[in-house]
């Protein structure tokens, strides 16, 4: 029931020619995801995220900045500080060491969240339709 937030394979940052220059977990003047301090079994102190809560901002060498959103409601368990010092792992290993954050949804909501996820095949079909409609 734990959710690991990563970049989708089709994300522009994972396309050829993009180089990540910086990752910033500072969301606003008063909110930094790095300030998240979680303790105990009930995960006290964890920041609560909504689906539209920004997790971080990623800048690329072409001047583009991408805001990565949580996409699920839940408690922020941890952010991956390793990508701050080595942003290349976000592109080299996006679904393992290059994860962005770990979120724990409410127990009651976790079943509906997983039921709403796409299978690998459904995801590939969505990408194919998107590609066909843009060409």
TrEMBL record:
Cellular compartment(s): Cell projection, Dendrite; Cell projection, Growth cone; Cell projection, Lamellipodium; Nucleus speckle
UniProt keyword annotation of Nucleus present: yes
Any one annotated GO CC term: nuclear speck
Protein name, entry field: Protein Abitram
Keyword field: Cell projection, Nucleus
GO molecular function terms noted in the UniProt entry: actin filament binding; actin monomer binding
InterPro entries recorded: Abitram, GCV_H/Fam206, Single_hybrid_motif
UniProt keyword annotation of Nucleus present: yes
Entry's family note: Belongs to the ABITRAM family.
Gene Ontology biological process terms in this record: dendrite morphogenesis; regulation of actin filament polymerization; regulation of filopodium assembly
Superkingdom: Eukaryota
A Pfam family per the record: GCV_H
């Amino acid at each position: 029931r734990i959710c690991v937030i990563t970049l989708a394979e089709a994300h522009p940052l994972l396309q050829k020619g993009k180089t990540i220059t910086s990752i910033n977990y500072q969301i606003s003047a008063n909110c930094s995801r790095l300030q998240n301090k979680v303790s105990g079994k009930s995960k006290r102190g964890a920041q609560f995220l909504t689906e539209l809560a920004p997790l971080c901002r990623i800048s690329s060498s072409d001047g583009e900045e991408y805001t990565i959103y949580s996409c699920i409601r839940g408690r922020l368990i941890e952010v991956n500080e390793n990508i701050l010092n080595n942003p290349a792992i976000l592109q080299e290993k996006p679904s393992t060491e290059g994860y962005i954050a770990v979120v724990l949804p409410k127990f009651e909501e976790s079943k509906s969240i997983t039921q709403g996820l796409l299978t690998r095949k459904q995801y590939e079909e969505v990408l194919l339709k998107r590609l066909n409609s843009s060409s």
